[in-house]
Amino acid sequence: MIGIGTRICVKSSDREVFLAATRSLVAAVRAESGCLSYATYEDMEAANAFYFVGRYRDQAAVDAHIASAHVKTFMGALDGCKSSEPEGAFYDLPDPE
């Protein structure tokens, strides 16, 4: 199992545009066949900073996620909203028993 964690900071003036794009992204990602879970969280101490956390079945599922049309659409929308470059990491996770 593979985890992905991403932190995205957005401009306050583009917050609502970002949130609308995020809602669409989350619905599409959760429908991916290799996605085990996907959630977003807002940082309570840093204004307009958001975390995206996903768990995927395997590398093929991660590759499909990254190549998906909905991720590309989201990243295009993010270009105008972000206040800094997104930060992300991949993690090998133990399989649930």
Q: Any overview of this molecule?
A:
With 97 residues, this protein is an alpha+beta fold. It is 37% helix and 31% strand. It has three helices and four strands; from the N terminus they run βαββααβ. It has a four-stranded antiparallel beta sheet with strand order 2-3-1-4, covered by helices on one side. Strand 2 (35-42) and strand 3 (49-56) form a beta hairpin. Helix 1 (15-30) runs antiparallel to helix 3. The termini are close together. The relative contact order is 0.33. The model has no long low-confidence stretch (mean pLDDT 93).
Features:
single chain, 31% strand, 37% helix, 97 residues, alpha+beta
Q: What is the mean predicted local confidence, pLDDT?
A: 93
- Total of helices: 3
Q: Helicity, in percent?
A: 25-40%
Which stretches of 5+ consecutive residues score pLDDT under 50?
none
**How do the SSEs run, as a string of H and E?**
EHEEHHE
Structural class: alpha+beta
Strand content: 25-35%
**Principal-axes shape call:** globular
User: Count of DSSP E strands?
Assistant: 4
Which radius of gyration do the C-alpha atoms yield? 13 Å
Tell me the layout of helices and strands:
Blueprint: E1 2-9, H1 15-30, E2 35-42, E3 49-56, H2 59-67, H3 69-79, E4 87-92
Antiparallel strand pairs: 1-3, 1-4, 2-3
Helix pairs in contact: 1-3
Put the structure in a nutshell:
Helix content is about 35%, strand content about 30%. It is built from three helices and four strands.
